[in-house]
């Protein structure tokens, strides 16, 4: 041991510049990582007696959001498409929070029939709904279609949540003050709503499709706020950060090995799912947001959405188009 300590001492004395450089770089990298982790929701708000429904809560930031909501005392409904994974996640949420009031419900957002079935079940069995968190998402998949023939990313990320929210509005209005939280993305900043080819049939591109669906989340939040003004139901859209989750499952495997290897160091700097859930939690519970609606948030703070995410005419047009696509009067 003494020999080892002596050898380290000699090494440091012989290479002072190198050792200092390594230490400074290490501390710098960790500081950068902490900074990139972004804001933390500081609200201590309790949710005892309240009900929170989270879509896509079996993994990623949805699961971490569920643990937080359960920690605050809420009844938490995990609305997921794979019952095996959802039940496993619910067990974990119960264990980590010590809250047994965590239930699983079936929801496949790629099927309007499934969305309608879940909404009917909730209307018939739940007395209240205080927070609806539209979190589920799919990113950069091949040119797939939903059961109803819509382009998959627009169908799941926007249309399914659009219909679900509309069908649950009466319950949300009965439970005021209540909130609708839509998990969008920074990707909306390069998005465009292709009103002339909403399913991108002419020229499908997985990135363009993802961006369109995330812009739709921001515009939906905005128009919903207008329609709910004065009801006590408020709406929020957010970018959760860049997070190490399963979201890249359709995109990463399609890359050649050398590109996947290039991505590996990048994972050191991205957020953990717990860090990635903080802005969703902030929008769901923070008291300071009670009287604001329709806006966009990032890192637990308000942020201006891109100009196309603040286009009220486009928001109204998207609402009308979405309503006709999902068969809402
Ligand atoms: N991760 C990031 O860096 C990042 C950045 C910006 C925005 N976001 C947004 O954050 C949200 C959560 O993503 P995440 O990162 O936590 O991804 P994730 O780990 O892939 O989780 C996505 C969740 O959505 C569910 N889902 C997918 N298709 C569905 C469908 N048809 N019906 C019902 N549920 C479905 C998944 O269920 P299965 O497990 O059954 O597939 C899963 O529970 C998404 O809206 C995403 O766009 C993420």
TrEMBL record:
Question: Keywords on this record?
Answer: Oxidoreductase
What is a single molecular function from GO for this protein? oxidoreductase activity
Gene3D superfamilies in alphabetical order: NAD(P)-binding Rossmann-like Domain
Signal peptide location:
none
Q: Which residues are listed as membrane-spanning?
A: none
The UniProt similarity line reads:
Belongs to the short-chain dehydrogenases/reductases (SDR) family.
Family annotation (PANTHER family): PHOSPHATIDYLINOSITOL-GLYCAN BIOSYNTHESIS CLASS F PROTEIN-RELATED, RETINOL DEHYDROGENASE-LIKE
Name assigned to this protein: Si:ch211-107o10.3
Source organism per UniProt: Cyprinus carpio carpio
UniProt lineage? Eukaryota, Metazoa, Chordata, Craniata, Vertebrata
